[in-house]
From TrEMBL:
<dbReference type="Pfam" id="PF00440">
    <property type="entry name" value="TetR_N"/>
</dbReference>
<dbReference type="Pfam" id="PF21351">
    <property type="entry name" value="TetR_C_41"/>
</dbReference>
<dbReference type="GO" id="GO:0003700">
    <property type="term" value="F:DNA-binding transcription factor activity"/>
</dbReference>
<dbReference type="InterPro" id="IPR001647">
    <property type="entry name" value="HTH_TetR"/>
</dbReference>
<keyword id="KW-0238">DNA-binding</keyword>
<dbReference type="InterPro" id="IPR036271">
    <property type="entry name" value="Tet_transcr_reg_TetR-rel_C_sf"/>
</dbReference>
<dbReference type="InterPro" id="IPR009057">
    <property type="entry name" value="Homeodomain-like_sf"/>
</dbReference>
<protein>
    <submittedName>
        <fullName>TetR family transcriptional regulator</fullName>
    </submittedName>
</protein>
<dbReference type="InterPro" id="IPR049484">
    <property type="entry name" value="Rv0078-like_C"/>
</dbReference>
<feature type="domain" description="HTH tetR-type">
    <location>
        <begin position="2"/>
        <end position="62"/>
    </location>
</feature>
<dbReference type="InterPro" id="IPR050109">
    <property type="entry name" value="HTH-type_TetR-like_transc_reg"/>
</dbReference>
<dbReference type="GO" id="GO:0000976">
    <property type="term" value="F:transcription cis-regulatory region binding"/>
</dbReference>
<feature type="DNA-binding region" description="H-T-H motif">
    <location>
        <begin position="25"/>
        <end position="44"/>
    </location>
</feature>
Length: 191
């Protein structure tokens, strides 16, 4: 059963990236996986359930890549910014654009409610809690700050993906994100 799920996710990922969710044929993607529609229904309920699984997979991969980039920084604050900026930059990747940032919200609803986004939020909140406790950030509610940082990064990525000229929007979005985020920093003398 797990093997069938993986086959369907891989076939759907290719089909959704190539044609988009709406144009991808269930018959074609199940044939590509060497399975039947019954296997799709059994594992995912419907095509929308399969999209949710594909989005969750890709979004999880994006989060892992962004965390790895952030972890390379010695400074936890710079790591947090690098992680968010990496997530924003992934909006230039065609597969991410089409599946996660365009079709995902159109067919699955508010991305802030996706399980993969909530996992990212928890990690961001934990880091913000440590930065607030150490006096590096202003005394702000960690959950509120984490939600706003995550939401800003997500909305920047959505803006880039929906833009006719995403490469031109990217530097504007990253710069504005950094300016907004630095408003959380405690004054130098308060640390």
């Amino acid at each position: 059963m797990a093997e069938n799920r993986e086959k369907l996710i891989a076939a759907a990922r290719k089909a959704f990236a190539r044609k988009g969710f709406a144009a991808a044929s269930m018959d074609e993607l199940t044939a590509e996986a060497g399975l039947t529609r019954g296997a799709l229904y059994h594992n995912f309920g419907d095509k929308r359930g399969l999209l949710a699984a594909v989005v969750n997979r890709i979004d999880g991969e994006m989060a892992a890549r962004a965390r790895a980039i952030g972890a390379r920084r010695d400074d936890p604050w710079e790591g947090l910014l690098a992680e968010a900026e990496a997530y924003i930059e992934m909006a230039l990747e065609p597969e991410v654009q089409r599946i996660v940032l365009l079709d995902g919200p159109a067919f699955l609803g508010d991305p802030s409610q996706w399980p993969s986004q909530n996992q990212c939020l928890v990690a961001t909140q934990e880091l913000v809690e440590r930065l607030v406790a150490s006096g590096f950030l202003k005394p702000v509610d960690p959950e509120a700050a984490a939600r706003l940082l995550s939401g800003t990064a997500l909305n920047a990525a959505l803006w880039i993906a929906a833009s006719e000229k995403p490469a031109e929007i990217l530097p504007k979005a990253v710069e504005a994100f950094r300016v907004l985020a630095t408003g959380l920093l405690a004054p130098a003398g308060a640390k």
